[in-house]
Amino acid sequence: MPFVVFEGLDGSGKSTLIQGLESRLTAKGHKVVVTREPGGTPLGEALRNVVTTIEGQAPTPKTEALLYQAIRAQHVDLVIRPAMEREDWILCDRFRASSVAFQSGARGLREEQIEWLNDFSTGSLQPELTVLLDLTVEESQRRLQKRYSENDGSLDRFESEAAAFHERVRASYLKQSKVPENKDSWKVLDSSKPPEVLLTELLETPFLKQKGI
Questions:
Q1: Strand runs (DSSP E) across 43-199, as ranges?
Q2: Which of 136, 129, 135 is nearest to 204 (CA)?
Q3: Contacts (Cβ under 8 Å, ≥6 apart) of 125
Q4: Cα dihedral 188→80→109→45 (10° resolution)
Q5: Fewer CB within 10 Å of terminal CB in the chain, N or C?
């Protein structure tokens, strides 16, 4: 039932690192569930479009926070806990730390309120390992512009926020990583490094080494 979460700014390389770890786990015979927030279920994916789309009326910070928690509650009940019961590995792109970073750190809601909501929607579930891919805002935005220019895509509502918004998100992530009780359950990686280096550093994490990965 190992539960590993990947956090960081958009463009920080979460998906690439998840794919690398998934390949490693699969090669060792483990069953792996790869999922994401916001999203992870049909209802969650529909609500993801509501909270990330630029068109139409933007949700207020409180509404945004509650929509994220609704997505998370559905995700935990229908995907994460069943996978834990099957003793599958769970690799999740964003989880409760994102709510603290975005809705508290960036939007200004009280952190204790967000954590209460996190506990309510998850039944106080915590990942066994949170991997923070730390990246400067400038590099994050450069990568996003490159990605969308190559794929003829466009930025979503969060990606379109001003640099100051993303600076607050990054600061909140780093603050969370330094909380004493997170010392053994968080791993901060410098996301400016090549993907293969990041995977090597991740595999050196005591949690993964103890699991024989």
A1: 89-93, 129-134, 186-190
A2: 129
A3: 3, 76, 80, 81
A4: 110
A5: N
Is residue 91 within 8 Å of 211, Cβ to Cβ?
no
Which domains occur in the chain, in start order?
A: 3-199 (3.40.50.300)
Neighbouring CB atoms inside 10 A of 48's CB total 20
Provide the 10 A C-beta neighbour count for residue 43: 14
Residues facing residue 5 across a β-bridge? 92, 130
- pLDDT category, 152, cuts 50, 70, 90? low
Q: Is the pLDDT of residue 24 over 70?
A: yes
- Give the residue carrying structure tokens 């929509």: 67
Judge whether 195 and 17 are in contact, CB under 8 Å. Answer: yes
- What CA–CA distance (Å, rounded) separates 168 from 10? 13
Average pLDDT taken over every residue of the chain: 94
Interatomic CA distance for residues 74 and 88, integer angstroms: 19
Q: What is the rounded distance in angstroms from the CA atom of residue 144 to the CA atom of residue 135? A: 12
Handedness of CA 141, 145, 148, 151 (dihedral sign): negative
Q: Is 199 helix (H, G, I), strand (E, B) or coil?
A: helix
| Identity at 140, one-letter amino acid code | S
Go through the chain and tell me how many residues it has.
Answer: 213
